[in-house]
């Protein structure tokens, strides 16, 4: 049996709004859109996709993690060619740059609903 990754899902109090952010950031196309579920995909391939599901009680994780706080259980790593330019573009789209940055060639940001994601250079 072969197992492949079909997609990654982020919980959010507003799936359409968060999908709009990632659609602009990634340049992906929308495949499905409902008030409680939106799915994006790379126009070059069907899978994996990135989906957003309604979680009205979403609590953004703490970064860096600390005992007794909401822990990050997953995040997106997005490879870029120009770290500074893509960091600025992500922030212009609504992301925020985290104060704590653990590596020189990686930038930790948060999307508009508080999910951490990383931009990184090839080889990082």
TrEMBL record:
VOC domain ranges (all copies): 4-124
InterPro entries: Glyas_Bleomycin-R_OHBP_Dase, Glyoxalase_6, VOC_core
Coiled coil: none
A Pfam match: Glyoxalase_6
Protein name: VOC family protein
């Amino acid at each position: 049996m072969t197992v492949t990754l079909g997609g990654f899902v982020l919980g959010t109090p507003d799936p359409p709004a968060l999908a709009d952010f990632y659609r602009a950031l990634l340049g992906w196309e929308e495949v499905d859109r409902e008030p409680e579920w939106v799915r994006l995909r790379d126009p070059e391939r069907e899978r994996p996709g990135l989906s957003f599901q309604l979680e009205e009680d979403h609590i953004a994780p703490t970064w860096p993690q600390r005992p007794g706080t909401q822990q990050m259980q997953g995040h997106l790593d997005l490879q870029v060619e120009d770290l500074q330019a893509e960091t600025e573009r992500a922030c212009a789209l609504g992301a925020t740059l985290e104060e704590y940055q653990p590596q020189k060639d990686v930038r930790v940001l948060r999307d508009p609903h508080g999910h951490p994601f990383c931009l990184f250079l090839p080889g990082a």
